[in-house]
Structure formats: structure tokens, C-alpha cells
Amino acid sequence: METWNPEKAASWNQAPKLHYCLDYDRRKAELLVTRLEAVTSDHDGGCDCYVQGSVANRTGSVEAQTALRKRQLLTTWEEGLVLPLAEEELPTATLTLTLRTCDRFSRHSVSGELRLGLDGVSVPLGAAQWGELKTSAKEPSAGAGEVLLSISYLPAANRLLVVLIKAKNLHSSQARELLGKDVSVKVTLKHQAQKLKKKQTKRAKHKINPVWNEMIMFELPDHLLRASSVELEVLSQAEAGQSWALGHCSLGLHASGSERSHWEEMLKNPRRQIAMWHQLHL
């Protein structure tokens, strides 16, 4: 492994590299990952980045992650990762270090990951070194693409505003004959299991990465907001009137991940538009 040289950073654009040092605290039974630095090319996506570490043990797996740092050619974290791990499990355990980026719409993506055996031979404890990050086979997702939207609630007017901004990679799991068709988004407002109202955006050209920038407004009393949800269905439409569902997602407290956190952020910040990317499901 080589030490980092600023003059060589430009030649490392092919793949990001991660600097790390592994150590083990026998008294606390903890794996320590310190001296974390990442070298990335200046055209990598994401405004901020962080390092996530995970290791499997007898009870499952444990994870830890650094704080967000502004992504630069060389990004340095002051803190390290602490992962509980019994000493007798070290020889057979594998540590995965993942460099992730996060943009201003809270869209998290993987820049690369590094898998390390903890047998003390392939990766000596106490030795700082650089490793080249490999692109995860799991990302980008082979799902139905992603959609970017903002939501906000106006308490004085009892109005829920949903702005459909754009979508990305809608072709990933679709048949070739659907390419080039018009695409729209059907938005359904629900209270618990009851459908209150549904509206649909105008059709947008170019199905793979369509742009709408269209606001949809719903009248919704404040006391119904927490138990309500918004369902989105992206539709490909032909001139004859037929339509095909390309993917869907549902925002609300019933959901998990970004679909729940988006709704929670809206509840905590009335009158403020909160924008996030969401994975579409088939």
C-alpha cells in the first residue's frame, strides 16, 4: 500500500481511495478504525460524505459511521469508528468500510466500499494504509428508478403542497418499447386506509429522466396530518390512452427509511419545503 501524495491525486480519479488504521481494544472488546481520510475525484457526486463501517458478530452485525464532512479531493475525519467485537471472533470476521455521499436533497449514494479480513495477516493491526474502494454491486439499485419531490404543509391554510420535481433512471427495469413514452405521476392523498383525493401531473416528455416541476395542492385539516400519507405512482402513457405503472412510493409515518423521515421533517418544519430523493418500488 502507498502513502498519499497530493501530486498523485489526479491519477486516482478512476476509483476513490480510503486511508485507515485498524486496532483492537482487548479490555473493551472493541474494533477501532482511525486515521480516516478519503481521496476522491473532483467530479464525484454528493455535497457531503461520510464513512460507514460494519462487521458481523455472533448476535448479527454492528454498524457505526462518521459525521458528515464537506467532500473534497482529500476529506479527513477527526473521529474514528468503534465497533463492538469479541476477541475470539476476530480471525473469522470481515469489516466493510463504505464511503457514502449525501447531496442537498438527502440522497445517499455509495462511492465505493472496502472489505477487510480481520485475521491480522492480510490487514495488520496498528498499521495505517490506503485501500482502493470498489463499487458496490448493490448500487445503483436495479429497481424502478428514483423520484425527487418536495412536500410542505401550511397550517393557517390547511394545505398540503407536493411538488414533483423530476425522476431519474426510470428505464432500469422496463421494456424497451416503453422508452420515449410520455410519463406522469399520480398522487393520492390518504388518511389511514381511506383515499381522500387523487390528482395527476401533466405528461412529461422523455421517460428516462423526466422533469415536471409541478405543484399539487391538497386541502387537509391539521388534525388529520399525522395519520395521513401521500402515495405516488409513476405512469408511462401512450397516445391511445393506455398506461403502465413504472414504480411507486408512499410517504408517511407508516413507512420506513427516507419515506418516513421526509414526512417527519415536514411535520417538524411547517411552511418549509423539504425536498428528498426516493427510490421507486415495482
Spatial extent as radius of gyration: 23 Å
> What global shape is seen?
elongated
Biggest β-sheet description: 5 strands, antiparallel
- Mean of residue pLDDT values: 85
- Going by CATH, the homologous superfamily of the largest domain would be C2 domain
CATH top level of the largest domain is Mainly Beta
CATH level 3 topology of the largest domain: Immunoglobulin-like
Count of extended strands: 18
SSE sequence, one letter per element: EEEEEEEEEEEEEEEEEHE
In terms of per-residue confidence, which ranges show pLDDT below 50 for 5 or more consecutive residues?
137-142
Helical proportion, percent range: under 10%
The CATH architecture of the largest domain comes to Sandwich
Distance from N terminus to C terminus (CA atoms, Å) equals 43 Å
Characterization of this structure:
One of its GO terms (molecular function) is calcium-dependent phospholipid binding. Keywords: Membrane, Repeat, Transmembrane, Transmembrane helix. It is a single chain. This protein has two domains: 17-132, Immunoglobulin-like (Sandwich); 143-281, C2 domain (Immunoglobulin-like). It is built from one helix and 18 strands. The chain has one helix spanning 257-268; strands spanning 17-25, 30-39, 48-57, 60-65, 69-70, 74-76, 81-84, 94-102, 108-117, 128-132, 146-154, 159-168, 182-191, 194-200, 211-219, 228-237, 243-252, 274-279. The strands form four sheets. Strands 1, 2, 6, 7 and 10 form a five-stranded antiparallel β-sheet that branches. The longest helix has 12 residues, at 257-268.
